[in-house]
Design brief:
The complex is a heterodimer. Chain A has helices spanning 2-7, 11-21, 25-38, 48-52, 55-58, 63-70, 80-87, 95-100, 111-122, 132-142, 149-163, 173-179, 185-188; strands at residues 45-46, 78-79, 129-130, 171-172. Chain A is mostly helical. A two-stranded antiparallel ribbon of chain A has the order 1-2. A two-stranded antiparallel ribbon of chain A has the order 3-4. In chain B, helix 5 (125-142) crosses helix 12 (296-316), helix 11 packs antiparallel against helix 12 (296-316) and helix 17 runs antiparallel to helix 18 (447-476). Chain B is mainly α. Classes of the chains: A mainly alpha, B mainly alpha. Chains A and B meet through helix 3, helix 9, helix 10, helix 11 and helix 13 of A and helix 19, helix 20, helix 22, helix 26 and helix 27 of B.
């Protein structure tokens, strides 16, 4: 299956993806075969339904938000390059990459990009701010029914207060980065892709 | 030098009992540290056989208390040693505490030797393994950072199992090879004995290295790897030791392939069986704590006892006891912490710490003490030096090799400095000594050489490596732990990250580490929590909510501190809007965390000041508390304050046994006068109403007596003396008649009594003497605040319950806790005249 799938992928595509995302050749072909098996419509692109067919995502409280993150604004198809671009956020930061940062722009798996990915999950209206309501929605998804709305509301308030430095009762991306300053985002937002 | 003198003085105290015991020649088995050597010198001069000619008033019964007395004295000595060691902080920062304790052990041993000319006391393996080790392991495993442990369990197991086997095998084989090569002269040791020795030498001691790690805050992965490894490694070592021991007793020729396979199988059965026993006990403990709500006083004890039983049970089944108690502690901590009351959790935590630190101290002192024995010192330079060389070299090789394998599959590889520190952290400790001391002299003729070498290795690693560890870690610039403060943002986003990662793994179609975590969580939520947690605890088991609660508690604490620094919590009355104090609090909180936020403080203030006009109904948590209760809060606080000022001081404070505040009562003679007058008035009233009563004569006879004691000085300076005993007896019987546990009833009855018009005059005197300080103010001044006032007072009397601070967050104040405090208060007050200060907390 893998060989058939990878044969659909042209070498120059692989090279480009490699350059853009930093994945290795074998990782790209492996992920392409996964992409191919998810693509039930066989049109070289994934729709939301294709993602929703993954059973585990249905029980992930943030599943739908995460699926949305794959799709650029206003589109409901994602091709392999877009797919890889999103996945590249979660590539672990390797030692030799740390020094490269300055020369070749910000890689997709940089700390900022990882944080931005998480930030966008909250920020539904894309105004670069997490409002109380947006936070509350995500919180509601993540906590059980045992916590009352009032309690959740005060949790949200407190969370915003913790991060909010300019007093607009919203969390901007800068504030978001700052409040997570001490969290080891590089490690906590990375998964291991098989080589 | 004062230090030395103190020690000498101590030891003089000891040497006399020592001599007595030496003379009386008791069997060594009973004593904790009492060796059998002394029985040789027995001269059977027994006191007890003497015939009694006259009734003795006082007898010298040393013989009766000898064993427990010696044990207690030794415990005291060891703990005093720790005290001495900790006196000088600059010293402990250079030499680790364990090393210093060993040195003090040398000195103590020297003094005992000087007094007895023989080694009277030493660490007996049985005592070590049954009475000293379990609590250390239980404490370590109970306090283990759970999540970190399980997420690194793979690496820990690899190091603990394979690493230990590697160390044992290579050290044994290498020593044997050197022996065959003639590096040690002639010794009566075979290859198997060398392997046995290698096995016992592979036990890594957690204590010393962890102390250093905690001090320099090494990163958490390194911490958990070394900590987890050294903990599990102890268990594995014991198993390995037993297998080799069995081989040794079997003898060389009889060992064939079958036996070796049996040995390997037994290794795994013992190790995993022990762990399983631990898990079973963890389940038992968790289930038990679901129902121990009514016996909160001993709740914490259950965990200790059951943990100990898990150790003994595994030992009984010849499974690994250390692994059993380790897994017991690690697995049950989450559930019992959720099930038990916060007070019990604190109690358990502290009592475990006391036990563990206590026995740790004893172990190190006795490690030093045991060295002063000329019998065990069989010197063999080659053997000793080669052992030290091999354990260090092979430890390094093993750690590097295993980490290289592990790094192939680790997301974040263990870097080279961490690996060096891991290898260097392989200190040998008490387990190695305990195992060496267990060696059977009949099977291993060179036992003393092995024992002596073990001691030298322990001293070498604990003292030398311990001293160099800290500079070494600093010199290598080992990655430090990021000091993560508890923030809701951190908690929430950690959770978000987890969800994102699992989703990504699902999308990529591979079962990663997160897959396991998530499925376990799912399973746990569905079944395990249902089985092991009370429904109450399940409800509050949300991590985000937990963090929220913790933060609120912290707020409350700092709120109180701040309030107290200004004299009284009542300062809140002066500030109309509660947001003001929250702002101060925040300023305080952030001031010492991030200095650059300080620069934004003006902005910050601005934001907070705006809070009340914001559209959000509940702008912040702390604010939420204030605002939600804004109607009741100020009233409540006023009431509290009022009560605080106007409640009469109990005479309890008056008693000289409570030295801390006994002179306070005399501050206010007016109060006494007032009480006295009021009492008299109410008595008069009740006297009138009871005129037709059953037994007026008794009452009449009683009152003058009482009055006469009260009248002359206006205040009863010492209730002990002035209290009429007849009354006391009477009170007591009335109390027990109304079944002592319903103390709440009692106080209620006494509050109701005057209004209801008492028809039994018997209750009047007691009501008047025990309750007058509380009754009048309630009725006259504050009306419905009866439930709150005693709780606050009870709080003052229970200094060991920091979690009572919940009262400051009325949001979380439950009626249950108020009730129990009211009851506590009532029972305490009632017992006060009975002069039993020691008993009152058992009633809680």
């Amino acid at each position: 299956m893998g060989s058939r799938a990878s044969s659909l992928l042209r070498e120059e595509d692989i090279e480009e993806i490699k350059k853009e995302t930093g994945f290795s050749h074998s990782q790209i072909t492996r992920l392409y075969s996964r992409f191919h098996s998810l693509d039930k419509g066989e049109n070289g692109a994934l729709s939301r339904e294709d993602f929703q067919r993954i059973p585990e995502l249905a029980i992930n409280p943030l599943g739908d938000r995460i699926i949305n993150a794959f799709f650029p604004e206003g589109e409901d198809q994602v091709n392999f390059r877009g797919f890889m671009r999103t996945l590249a956020h979660f590539r672990p930061v390797e030692d030799n990459e740390k020094n490269k940062d300055l020369t070749s722009g910000e890689p997709l798996n940089s700390r900022t990009n990882k944080l931005l990915f998480a930030f966008r999950l909250y920020d539904l209206d894309r105004d670069d701010k997490i409002s109380r309501d947006e936070l509350l929605q995500v919180l509601r998804m993540m906590v059980g029914v045992n916590i009352s709305d009032e309690q959740l509301g005060s949790i949200a308030d407190r969370t915003i207060q913790e991060a909010d430095t300019n007093g607009d009762m919203c969390i901007s991306f800068n504030e978001f980065t700052k409040v997570l300053e001490k969290v080891d985002v590089e490690q906590k937002m990375s998964i291991r892709f098989l080589h | 030098m004062a230090l030395l003198r103190l020690l000498l003085a101590l030891l003089i105290v000891f040497s006399s009992p020592c001599k007595v015991t030496a003379l009386e020649g008791d069997s060594a088995e009973v004593g904790l540290n009492y060796s059998s050597k002394s029985s040789e010198t027995s001269t059977s001069t027994n006191v007890t056989t003497a015939t009694i000619t006259t009734l003795p008033i006082v007898i010298w019964k040393w013989h009766h208390v000898e064993t427990p007395y010696l044990v207690a004295l030794w415990i005291l000595t060891c703990w005093l040693c720790k005290l001495v060691v900790e006196l000088n902080h600059s010293l402990t920062s250079v030499i680790p505490e364990s090393g210093l304790l060993i040195m003090l052990g040398f000195i103590l041993g020297g003094i005992v030797w000087g007094a007895d000319k023989a080694q009277t006391f030493k660490l007996v393996p049985v005592n070590f393994f049954y009475y000293l080790l379990p609590q250390i392991v239980l404490d370590a495993s109970y306090c283990m950072p759970n999540k970190l442990f399980f997420s690194n369990l793979g690496a820990i197991l690899v190091h603990a199992v394979i690493g230990t086997c590697w160390n044992a095998g290579t050290v044994g084989v290498a020593l044997w090879a050197c022996y065959e090569g003639g590096a040690m002269g002639t010794l009566n040791i075979g290859a198997l004995q060398f392997l046995l020795f290698g096995a016992l030498m592979s036990a890594v001691d957690p204590v010393a290295v962890i102390a250093v790690f905690e001090e320099v805050h090494v990163n958490e992965v390194l911490y958990i790897l070394v900590f987890g490894e050294s903990l599990l490694n102890d268990g594995v070592t014991v198993v390995l030791y037993n297998v080799f021991d069995a081989f040794v007793s079997l003898g060389g020729p009889k060992i064939n392939a079958e036996e070796i396979i049996k040995g390997i199988v037994s290794f795994f059965v013992v190790a995993f069986g022990g762990s399983l026993i631990g898990v079973v006990f963890a389940v038992l403990i968790s289930m038990l704590t679901r129902v121990t709500k009514n016996v909160q006083v001993i709740e914490a004890g259950f965990i200790i006892v059951l943990g100990y039983l898990s150790y003994l049970t595994a030992e009984m089944l010849s499974l690994s006891a250390i692994l059993s108690i380790t897994f017991c502690g690690v697995c049950c901590q989450k559930y019992i912490n959720a099930n038990m009351d916060e007070k019990s959790v604190t109690t358990l935590r502290y009592s475990l710490k006391v036990l563990a630190n206590g026995s740790e101290t004893m172990i190190f002192v006795f490690l030093g003490l045991s060295a002063i024995d000329k019998n065990i010192w069989v010197w063999n330079t080659g053997f000793i030096l080669l052992t030290i060389l091999f354990i260090v070299v092979f430890r390094f090789m093993g750690v590097f090799f295993l980490n290289w394998i592990l790094n192939q599959s680790r997301l974040i590889p263990i870097d080279i400095t961490d690996q060096i520190v891991m290898s260097y952290g392989g200190l040998r400790g008490a387990v190695a000594y305990g195992l060496a001391a267990t060696l059977d002299e009949k099977k291993i003729p060179e036992k003393n050489l092995m024992l002596g070498t073990t001691l030298i290795v322990v001293y070498f690693t604990v003292v030398l490596q311990g001293i160099t560890m800290k500079p070494f870690v600093q010199w290598l610039k080992v990655k430090k732990a990021t000091q993560a403060d508890l923030t809701l943002n951190g908690k929430i986003n950690n959770r978000t990250f987890e969800h994102i990662l699992t989703a990504m793994e699902d999308i990529c179609g591979r079962m990663g580490d997160n897959w396991w975590t998530r499925h376990w969580k799912h399973f746990e939520e569905k079944y395990v929590c249902w089985l092991l947690m009370t429904s109450d605890a399940r409800k509050h088991n949300d991590q985000i909510f937990g963090a929220f609660h913790k933060l609120n508690l912290e707020d409350a604490t700092s709120y109180v501190t701040e309030g107290e620094s200004k004299g009284s919590l009542a300062f809140i009355r002066n500030d109309d809007s509660a947001s003001v104090d929250f702002k101060k609090k925040l300023a305080l909180e952030y001031a010492d965390i991030i200095p650059d936020i300080m620069a934004d403080m003006s902005e910050y203030d601005f934001g907070i000041d705006n809070v009340p006009v914001m559209k959000n109904p509940i702008p912040s948590v702390s604010l939420g508390i204030h605002e939600q209760d804004s109607k009741t809060m100020p009233n409540d606080l006023n009431a509290h304050h009022l009560l605080e000022q106007h409640l009469y001081k109990s005479r309890r404070y008056n008693r000289p046994t409570y030295s801390r505040s006994h002179y306070k009562a005399s501050e206010n003679p007016d109060e006494m006068q007032e009480i006295f007058q009021r009492t008299m008035r109410s008595r008069l009233e009740s006297f009138k109403s009871a005129k037709m009563g059953v037994n007026p004569a008794k009452k009449l006879s009683k009152h003058p007596k009482k009055d006469s004691t009260h009248k002359p000085n206006g205040k009863p300076a010492d209730p002990n003396r002035t209290h009429p005993y007849g009354d006391e007896d009477f009170e007591f019987s009335a109390d027990s008649a109304s079944s002592s546990d319903i103390a709440g009833h009692f106080s209620r009855r006494s509050t109701n009594a005057p209004r209801a018009g008492v028809d039994n005059p018997a209750f009047i005197p007691e009501m008047d003497t025990s309750a007058p300080m509380r009754n009048p103010p309630w009725q006259t001044e504050t009306g419905n605040n009866t439930a709150v006032a005693p709780s606050q007072r009870a709080q003052g009397r229970l200094p060991w319950t920091p979690t009572n601070l919940r009262h400051l967050a009325p949001l979380r104040m439950s009626t249950r806790s108020t009730d129990s405090f009211a009851m506590a208060d009532a029972s305490v007050d009632e017992e006060a005249p009975e002069e039993k200060p020691g008993t009152h907390h058992t009633r809680l």
